[in-house]
Amino acid sequence: MKLQTVVCYSLSFPDQESMAYLRLIAPFRQAGIRLINGLHNGHAIPDRVVKGDVVIIQRQFPQRFNEYQEVVRIARQEQKPIVFDLDDLLFFLPKDHPDRIEHSFAPALLPMFQALLEADVVTVSTHRLRDVLMDYNDRVVVLPNYLDDTIWDLKPPRLKNSHEDSLIIGYMGTNSHKPDLEYIAPVLLDLIERFPQKISLYFWGTPPPLALRSLSQVQWIPFDIRSYPEFAAWFQTQSVDIFIAPLVDNLFNRCKSPLKFFEYSALGAPGVFSRLDPYESVIQHGYNGFLAVTQSEWARCLRSLIEDEDLRFRMATEAQATVKEKWLLSQNISQWIETFQAAIGIGKKSSFQEHNPILEMLTSINQQLFEAFQTLTAQVAEQSQTIHALTAQVAEQSQTIQNLESEILGYVLSRSWQITRPFRMISRMLERIVRK
Q1: Is 326 helix (H, G, I), strand (E, B) or coil?
Q2: What 3-state class would DSSP assign to 81?
């Protein structure tokens, strides 16, 4: 049976956010495979499962546990293979990661773990991520992130004389990378002190580290673009001479993909990257990029790029050549087709349709947690309505008091109040005499 249609359940699909675009929308469009959104107006439509040859569950969608269970039930009934796609090791978020501090994914973790266990195939973005997840499902396939060359144009690197022109050192990323930037902040501060007239630091997305924010050489360009194609179009209008991509050394970061290297290289600028799995897999140190671990290594690599315009040009050229040769989506689309084509046969003989006591217990736990979460959500909504009503009452009473104060003040300042003042004084004197 030839793969023709895929049904996807992803919370990031409607806005074409990066996860859905890079791992679903762009690959299947280039492959000529019809992709059906399993959600409508934010709600899952489980019956759409029957329209696809393969069903894809992406990232935290299982958090909507009742909807997720119904999707799985219909898929099993119709013998449709279930693919769980995960591009980050969210099960092992570091303690200082902003998403862990804010509990962004906490309600989704156990449902996602269930999806990991019972999926017929799990697709991930890196080999390191596959190695971690293979302990829980032996059908994990690596589908790397690629640069979609239908929305990214590779800008030719240009030679810029650092002795005459100011250089821009740039970083692009979300707030989740705050710990990574904090690690590199002392190096950047030292560079500004060393080259106060030569360099500027630009941060797209996440704010600069606190130690840098007050410096005149530092610029912050916030953006709130959810659509990945819109982001790509906007980011390609920016001008950068050197990029940085720091990552703190932990398991979560080691499982990430080298997407930043592709996007940075598309702008025709060289970069310094952390010497971790994501970048070690694509960068040859000193050839198409620099790899650094310690702060002294970071400082040395950045100084080399600042002071040597020929090195910048040569390294940017080789970085783009690497992307063109190996990492364009159009050149690797067959890998996606083969992976999902192979998944069709797996769904018809899934072992998870049989009795599985661990999965049954996990399902019960998730159901109870989901019910508790729904109850808490309803209570919070009710309390929010009460607070809103009380706030409205207080605002109304405050307005009434203000009106009374205005009327009293107006009367006190009026001519009639001034004319009758002597009579009020006489009245108070008579009252005191009478009391005696």
Answers
A1: helix
A2: coil
